[in-house]
Here is the input.
Amino acid sequence: MIKNLWFLRGLRKGIRTEKFPEENPVEIALWSTELIGEGNVECPVDAIVDGQWNFEKCIFCRKCTPSFAPKGNINIFRVRNNEPAFRKSFHLFPFDSGACGACNAELHNIASPQYDMTRFGIFFTNTPRHADAIVIMGVWTQGMKKALDLALDAMPGPKLVIALGSCASTGGIMGKGALENEKYDVIIGGCPPNPYTILSALEKARGD
Amino acid sequence: MRWYRHDEPHGRFIGSTGGMDIYAETYKESSRREIESTYTKTDQEFIFSYGPASGMLESSEIDLYTPGEIINHVDVGTDVRKRVIRIAQSDPLDALLKIERINGFHGASHAICFISAIEDAMDINPDGMMQYNRIVQLECERIRGNLLVIERMAQAAGFGVPVNQLAFLREKASRIIGRRGGHRYFFGVNSINSSCFNTDVIGKQMGAITEEFQDIFKGLLESKLFINRLQDNGVNNDKVSTGPAARASGLLHDARIDSRTLPYEDTEYSIVANTEKDAYGRFLVRAEEIQVSASIIKQLEKRCTNLRKSEYSLKDGEGMARVESPSGDLFYSVKILNGKIESLGYIPPSIRNIQSFRESMKGNIFTDFHFNWESYGIWTAEAGVVIQ
Ligand code: SF4
Ligand code: SF4
Here is the structure.
């Protein structure tokens, strides 16, 4: 008798991947989506200046409520440069410069069955030499600087440099950005960004 | 200070911070010295370096000293990703924004422990319903944390199906948490004398996750290949180890039973422990703790309030608190002066777990490394942080 066939156990569960992006996200935690509101509020990271909300800085701390509130729009990312060469396959090298673990977990989550990044041809690689993009998480740290420089040098071109979360892009509340902001091709907002936002940004990063 | 007293050692040793040794019930000027390893590489050995950016979940620098197969010594460097966090002279609520982000994956544990220390310092007595709400949050975090550890252990074995099934459940848990607190990692959910986490029918939802987990657990237990990689791998003899690592070595070390910060005594549960001591024992403890956490949540869901914001007045003082995070004892102490944080003490479980891991790797072979590392549930983010 076949006692322990993981393959069959997997089949028994059926397809559990969602239809996103053809269909709307099934479930999002609101405090990772666009904030809308007006007025000047005290923001600990100056993410609201003259009533304008800046997703790159926001750490979603809720101190600006009720003047500002999240409305569920997951498209809080900026693509400065895209690279259509990665349309068929897109290999990401995750790089933790000084993250708290939550950005790491959310990036990891796009591989879970609900999102299944592989259906978009997105994969992780653990060497920068095989990477099309580096996904940087966390604040700048002295010790990781050399590793970051080496990783950026080791990547073949064309390549994309992606900031995941407010720490990497602006430093958030924990320090300074892992790289100078203008060095990023793609900036994904959130503290941490939610997996739907990450997938949408990655799709746009290759010109889809 | 309600829970801790300045006295001779009482209860087990938790760790040292700010010149103080912390025990289960007392604290005292530091007299303990951790013996720093002064290992010198022999001519027969080479150093196999792993990291800092290596495909692991977080950055860390791991040096394995080996003559070829057997590991003789291990160094784990967390300084490489050291974050310096400035807290001194901050308003406690501003400080909380940083504390939540020391280890985001255990954000509830850090926030609740820190807030409890502040409340202790300010003589604030949060009511029982709020405390139960906090326990529910911690147990949700524990379920998700244990799922991740087991998923990573299965990943080390290259078991695609259970890895995906566990990731599916973990994502489900994150969604339940996100729906109820607005944030998947509890950021912004807790504050001084306040918590905002909807617990309606949460017992049923987390219960469904744990039920589905049982099937995966059974499958993993039937897999000889997987179990063989865990048995006798990373035998932990550290008498002061913490969390699931301690409990898998027969030590009943658990802040849920010997810290008075949260009223766990109002629930019925038993601490899971075994005497396997190895990665297999840690796997068993974590798997069984998922059930225990689900049972605690079920018992408390109806005794909680969903949103509680109570007034408090600023007061100077000193406070200490300890909670059982998914990786073990987490301790904070604070001194508040003129409404600002004057000083802060901090003991995260990952520092002790790194010590236990290093010792337990001696005599193992390289291929044991990933299974053993993952079984400790170490977060270098919380170990590699300097709070000023
Ligand atoms: S949520 Fe916090 S960080 Fe974001 S804009 Fe509001 S106050 Fe600023
Ligand atoms: S952006 Fe937020 S979630 Fe991401 S590493 Fe920084 S503190 Fe953590």
